[in-house]
Known about the structure:
This protein is an all-alpha fold. The protein has helices at residues 2-29, 41-52, 56-72, 77-98, 104-119, 121-128. It has one domain (2-128). It comes from Leuconostoc kimchii. InterPro entries: DUF3185.
Amino acid sequence: xxxxxxxxxxxxxxxxxxxxxxxxxxxxxxxxxxxxxxxxxxxxxxxxxxxxxxxxxxxxxxxxxxxxxxxxxxxxxxxxxxxxxxxxxxxxxxxxxxxxxxxxxxxxxxxxxxxxxxxxxxxxxxxxxxx
Length: 131
């Protein structure tokens, strides 16, 4: 049973990393432009605002690639997951409020992030200790 749990952890960690590396690389390849066009006007306006900053999609792309590499290489995984959690939450909130019908990938990323954090809970215990 322990082997199955380890295989599930490795599979989730690998899929999570792959999603982040591919998505982040796509943002960088597109030159800081949004990788998606939205049919809902509010969602497109939100995306356009970030694109118009000239840096946001580059920044998120770099963060996603770095986090994906750290997680797949099993280096600083607990830290990488904490850093990425606000991005995961924002992805879900974007879809909940602006495009709920297309949010399944975002929900899946948040669930994977939370699962991986739960599996690394022992590394967070010192941060949560009351002194």
